[in-house]
User: Fold this.
Amino acid sequence: MLRGAALFGVFLMNLVAFASVSIMATEQQLLSLPTAPYDFTLLQVLRWLFMDKANTIFAFLFGLGFFLQMRRLEARDVDFGQVYLRRLGVLLVIGILHLCFVWSWDILHLYALAGFILFAMRGLPTRDLLGLGILLALIGRTAQKALAEFYPQGNWTGLPGGYTDEDVLHRQQLSANGDYGAIVETFFDWVVVDYVASGMIIGWLSYVLGRFLLGAWVGRRGWIEHARDCLPGWRRVRGIALLSGLLMEGSAILLKWASWLPQWPHREFIAECIHLLGTPILATGYVAAIVVGFEGGAARRWLAPFAWAGRMALTNYLMQSLVIAFVLFGVGPGLALAGRIGTCALAGIVIVAFALQVVFSRWWLGRFRHGPVEWLWRWLTYR
Assistant:
C-alpha cells in the first residue's frame, strides 16, 4: 500500500513537472491556455502535497526493503551479498536502458548505485544509520540546489538541450516530427551535460542514499513489521507530522509563489529551508497515516487498490514513462501535447491512467505471482 501510494505521487509529479515551463513548455504557451488560472492554482496544491514527498517515501521503502530482504535471506542461510548485488546489477542495467531510451528522469539507476553504497554500510550501528541518513538527506538536497545555481543552465556550448524557450521549442519540434532517434540523442546529451558533467548526480545520489538509510533504520527497529504493537506511537506521529508538515510546506509555497506577500531579501532562500525540513516531516506523516489506516477498517478498504499497484511497482513505474511519452511526444501514436496541455488536464490523465494500472495489476496478479518486469528481475537475479 505504501509503495502504491508513493507510485501514484511520483507519476503525478513526473508528468506535471516534465510538461512544465523550461522542460517541455514555454511560460507563454501555458499562460495562453484557457485553463491557465486553474492550472497555476492546482500546481501549487500539488507542490504543497506531493512534490518531493512521493519520491521520499519511494526511496525510504527501498531502504526498508533492503533490511527486510537481508534478514529473510540470512534466516534461510542464503548468501545475501551475492544475491543482492546481482539484484542491484540487474536493476542498474534496467535503469540505464530506461534512462537512455525512454525517460531521462529515470530513478532506477540511482537506486541501484545508492543500493551498492547501502550494502557496504549495512553493518553500521542503528544510531549511525539515523544520523547519517538525516545528514545525507539534507546535504543531498542542498547540493542539488547549489549545483543548479552554480552551473549556468542554458549555456550548452552548442549541445542540444537546456532550459531556454529556444531549447524548449527545439524539443517540441523534434516531438512534432516524431523523430525518435533525434529525441533520444537530444535528451542523452542533456543528461550527460546537465546531470553527469555538472555533478548533479552526486547531489541526487546523496538525496536518495539518505532516504535509504532512514528506511533501513526503521526496518531495523521493526516499526513497520510490528505496526499493530506500535500503533499508539504511529497515531502520535501521524497527528504531529501531518499537521506540522502541512503547515511548513504550505508556508514554503506561499513564501515562494504568493505575489501578494511583501518582498524582502532572502525570501526564496527561507522558503527553500522550510521546504527542506518540511518535506521529510510531511512524508513521515503520510507513512504514519497509511500504517494507521492499514490497521483500521474502512480506511484499509480504501487503501487496498494501492497495494495491487504496489506489488507491481517496477512494471507500473516503467509503464508510466510510456504514458508520459505518449502524452507529450509525437513518436508513433503519441499525442505531442507538450506546450498545449495544462496541469488540470495532466492531473486528470494521471488519475485515469493510474486507475487503469490498478485494474491491470489486479487482473495480472490474479493469474501470476509477479508482475512481468518483476518476474524478469527475479529470473535474472536468482537464475
About this structure: Residues 2-227+295-382 form one domain.
